[in-house]
Amino acid sequence: KYGTDALRFALTIGNSPGNDLRFSDEKVESSRNFANKIWNASRFVLMNFDDEIDFSKVDKAKFTTADRWILSRVNTITKEVTENLEKFELGIALQKIYEFIWEEFCDWYIELVKPRLYDKENDTRLEAQYVLNHVLGTSMKLLHPFMPFVTEEIYRHLINDDESIMISNWPEYDEKMYY
Asked: Is 174 left (phi over 0), alpha (psi -120 to 50) or beta?
């Protein structure tokens, strides 16, 4: 009724080992809404890519405060989610990914970056496109164990050198990250 990824998400989020989980249509429907949210965010990102985009020309010195903030946050989330997964704290890991994607990436960063994307003459437009691609790609990798189908489909359309998200490298925390 709501999709495989939504069901997997609903059965994992907020759950901890040894606890029973009460099934509810509302929880699965909410999970489907999250899948729609990331689908719409990815469509927005891809619609704002130029035909011949070249990320080799990105100047990290042009990153805005918002760019540096979201890159720092995705770096931190990568570390936290990896640690949670290594401890088999699947529900906690998924909750962190969910909150990051919905609240920080979609509700804040995408809204902050819109004026730069809509202005084709903005000298930081390429940097905004790069950050969107990077953060969305990393987020899809972190979310992939829980929602494999939607994340694979989105990831295939992003700019990367990977054949598939399933065989791409897991994101790694960069303790020296500085922009």
From this structure: beta
> Identity (one letter) of the amino acid at 120?
K
CA atoms of 34 and 5, how far apart (whole Å): 10
For residue 172, give both structure tokens: 């790694």
Model confidence at 24, pLDDT cuts 50, 70, 90, reads confident
- How far apart (Å, rounded) are the C-alpha atoms in residues 28 and 26? 5
Give pTM, 2 decimals. 0.92
DSSP letter for 106, please: I
**Paired tokens of 155:** 């990831």
For residue 16, give both structure tokens.
Answer: 């901890």
Record the tokens describing residue 103, joined without a space: 């609240």
Asked whether the predicted pLDDT for residue 29 surpasses 80, the reply is yes
What is the dihedral sign for C-alpha 84, 85, 91, 97?
positive
d(Cα 1, Cα 7) in Å, to the nearest integer?
9
Taking alpha carbons only, the member of 165, 152, 155, 150 closest to residue 2 is: 150
Class of residue 3 by CB neighbours under 10 A (exposed 0-12, middle 13-18, buried 19+) = middle
pLDDT tens for each residue of 51-95: 889 999 999 999 999 999 999 999 999 999 999 999 999 999 999
Question: Degrees (nearest 5) of the Cα angle 110, 113, 114?
Answer: 85
